[in-house]
Amino acid sequence: MNHPSDYANRSKERAGNPIITSIFTADPSAHVWEDGKIYIYASHDMDPPLGCDLMDRYHVFSSDDMVNWTDEGEILRSDDVEWGRPEGGFMWAPDCAYRNGTYYFYFPHPSGSDWNSTWKIGVATCSEPAGKFVDQGYIQGLGGFAMIDPCVFVDDDNRPYLYYGGGGKCAGGELNDDMMSMKTGAVEMLGLEDFHEATWVFKRNGVYYLMYSDNLHDNNCMRYATSDNPLGPWQYQGIFLEPTGCSTTHGSVVEYKGHWYLFYHNQAVSDHGNLRSVCIDELYFAEDGRIRMVEQTKEGVHRLEGSGEQRLQPATVYQAASAACSGGAARAEEEAAVCLPEAGSGCLFEKVDGGDGGRAYVQFQYRTEESLAKLHLYVNGADWSLLNAPAVGSDGTAPGLTGITVELQPGTNNRIQVVSELGEICIEALLVSGFQA
Ligand code: FUB
After folding, report:
1. What pLDDT shows up at residue 8?
2. Which residues line ligand 1 (CB under 6 A)?
3. Looking at domain 12-282, which CATH architecture does it have?
4. Looking at domain 316-434, which of 1.10.3090.10, 3.30.365.10, 2.60.120.260, 3.40.50.720 is its CATH number?
5. In whole angstroms, what is the distance from residue 338 CA to residue 347 CA?
6. Which ranges of the chain have pLDDT less than 70?
7. Which of 25, 150, 152, 422 could share a disulfide with 374, CB 3.0–4.6 Å?
8. Is 0.90 topped by the overall pTM?
């Protein structure tokens, strides 16, 4: 048997699509920050879903080569939002902006139990791009229609603009320097054809581009319009992303290291419209500035020059043979693995080293024949997440890895339990990596 960390160190030349498969993520807003890395602020489809009602616990992902992505961990959940809907959930498509040493995270969230009539655009701040964000309230003075899908575009002259909207209407206005209040009232963005939701604004060669999803029922396209003014009026230009097979479409366009990319989501992992997965493909412009139709690939984008480092310390490996079995789980005879035969069987790793405490990336090395097995992860007794474990490794080939960034306590008394939620699956090892400062 290979050493588990051999598998963890496999490097890839293409990212593959979707790029994030362990948990379900959607509505990716990508940004390049001053540290030279690119970050994805995504919403998180909680599994099992209830429409989009349970979406919560935003995670951020970073990379410097477009292929190796670090799950930076959870930055905000509905429990942290003081003014938010008492029942939680409904943490929909977010965005992030930077000004004077502070990152501003914008998220749509209802303030009342009647979610559909109480949407607000919340703001949370942090001094790091992916640290713990602190709720600052919501932007005052907006309203009148679905206040979802915020997008903040900062122009070359440093003036910030907020866009938002759903249900057929898109609005935008200038923000004040505080990034949390409107300088001007929001006005309707004119000239968009068949606007549904998912606004994203970027600028190229002096031209402003506003992209959005259209109303094609249960299978939206992405369309765009251009203007020479950040608040329009807009000139409609057409479709540049055909339906992905998912009942929603939402994304962002960003230039990184001389390449332009479209970040979007599909339902390739789950085959379920409320369990979505972030994808990336290259985006090209015609000579006249028009966006060419984006090709949706399974291979994904090519690796760029970069360290490929995931800001993770070398993993500590805990062999599954050392874990306590429960619910019918049993050690495989020849391999140092624990096989979980059915839903409810699990294994518990005790005395896991959390170092100084804080974020750590936990991964399970596994084999399964189930097309999409699921593992329920508990950390120190707290229900953390369901992890996807697509079929891999059962014919003697390399095993799979599935993981997520969690919070560990300082010291060596952490308990990590994994319980099968769906399908028979054999766990070979737990790999735990702390984050480098
Ligand atoms: O993810 C929840 C909602 O679905 C978003 O706010 C919409 O843009 C659509 O993607």
Report:
1. 53
2. 26-27, 43, 52, 92-93, 148-149, 197-198, 248, 250
3. 5 Propeller (2.115)
4. 2.60.120.260
5. 7
6. 1-11, 309-310, 333-335
7. 422
8. yes
